[in-house]
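Annotated sample (chain length 84).
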Amino acid sequence: MDMQTWRDSRSRADSATDALREALAGLGIPERVQRHLRPMVTHRGSPMVHVGMLQAEHVEQIAEALRVAAESRSLTAASQETGA
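Output written by the structure step:
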């Protein structure tokens, strides 16, 4: 992988990590948990976010927030389909 590919991938991984940190902070997940997030780039140049180990209670909070977001998204899509 060339250096520009690595830089672009690292930048994307950094942005994704920051976005996840902000989302977790919005859920009230403690900063000590957010510190475990790490931006990474694979040897093939894929941007990744290493989440690490999280306590079950924090994962349950994240899962609930994702469920609410998914329900909201499907309700929005349904209302757009019906023209409401």
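Annotation: The radius of gyration is 17 Å.
Annotation: The mean pLDDT is 91.
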